[in-house]
Write a structure and sequence with these properties.
- The protein is mostly beta strands.
- The chain has a single domain (27-162), classed as Porin.
- Helices cover 10% and strands 64% of the residues.
- The chain has one helix at 8-23; strands at 32-49, 52-64, 68-80, 85-97, 102-114, 117-129, 137-147, 152-162.
- An 8-stranded antiparallel beta barrel has the order 1-2-3-4-5-6-7-8.
- A hairpin with a 3-residue loop joins strand 2 (52-64) and strand 3.
- The radius of gyration is 23 Å and the shape is elongated.
- The N and C termini lie far apart (48 Å).
Length: 163
């Protein structure tokens, strides 16, 4: 028997093993649209020095396509740009689904104030997660409003997610 030829039973076994291993390889998923509406509450802590003049601690609840009911927690770095505009950024946003799976994201943007109301505009980048979202990626826009006296507001996330 030639050293390079496998007996038929060994060839069949090798084919089954190779097929099993190949089926374990996940293909990159196509991006799907995501839209979330989340009621938030933010509490502000004054630091007073760079790199963050203020720290915003945010929590919230809402719903998102492909995620269902979610809770949000985040902490962001806030700095004034002018008397009516603040910049914010974070690398610590976590959306947790009802079953405990999480989506991790970074974001940045501005809060433009008019009286006691702030308009939120920015963008986000999905950078991973846990469970079914362990390989999640995506990006999109953040829009919203916040009452500056109570810290209560609402944000909308629109964009795409792949997982």
């Amino acid at each position: 028997m030639n050293a390079y030829k496998l007996p038929r039973s060994q060839f069949f076994l090798a084919l089954v093993v190779a097929s099993s291993l190949a089926s374990g390889v996940t293909e990159a998923k196509s991006p799907v649209p995501i839209k979330a509406t989340i009621a938030i509450t933010e509490s502000i802590q004054t630091i007073g020095t760079a790199p963050c003049i203020l720290i915003g601690n945010i929590s919230g609840t809402g719903t998102a396509t492909h995620l269902g009911n979610v809770t949000l927690v985040s902490s962001d770095c806030i700095n004034p740009i002018s008397a009516t505009v603040l910049s914010f950024n974070s690398n610590a946003l976590v959306l947790t689904t009802a079953n405990g799976d999480q989506v991790f994201a970074t974001y940045s943007g501005t809060l433009t104030t008019e009286g006691t109301v702030g308009a939120i505009t920015g963008g986000y980048q999905i950078v991973g997660g846990t469970g079914r979202f362990s390989q999640a990626t995506g990006a999109g826009a953040v829009q919203g409003v916040e009452d500056l006296t109570t810290g209560k507001g609402q944000i909308q996330l629109t964009g795409t997610i792949s997982y």
